[in-house]
Amino acid sequence: MGKKRAHNATSNYQVGLETAGRAKPVKDNNILGKVRANFLGTEFYIFDEGCNPNKAKSPDQIRAQQGVV
How many Å apart are CA 64 and CA 11, to the nearest integer? Predict the structure, then answer.
């Protein structure tokens, strides 16, 4: 499933294992990661399922960038 996340300054998509008909994934462990665009929408950054560095409780939970398109 790929779902656009609302209320973000840039295009931001959540990628998961649920069917596309659901509003939200049922479990957090079904989330594979996310894709985020830059302000112009010309580059897309691929992240794993980790947390925002500002919200992570430990360094093991911080998301990592996996690639750029």
Answer: 18
Q: Report domain extents, the chain.
A: 1-31
Question: What is the rounded CA–CA span in Å between residue 9 and residue 43?
Answer: 14
Amino acid, res. 32: L
For residue 20, give every residue at least 6 positions away whose Cβ sits within 8 Å of its Cβ, in sequence order, or none.
1, 2, 3
Using DSSP's 3-state secondary structure scheme, residue 60 falls into helix
Question: CA 46 to CA 36: how far, in whole Å?
Answer: 7
Using the predicted structure, report yes or no on whether residue 44 has a pLDDT greater than 90: yes
In angstroms, the CA 16 to CA 42 distance is 23
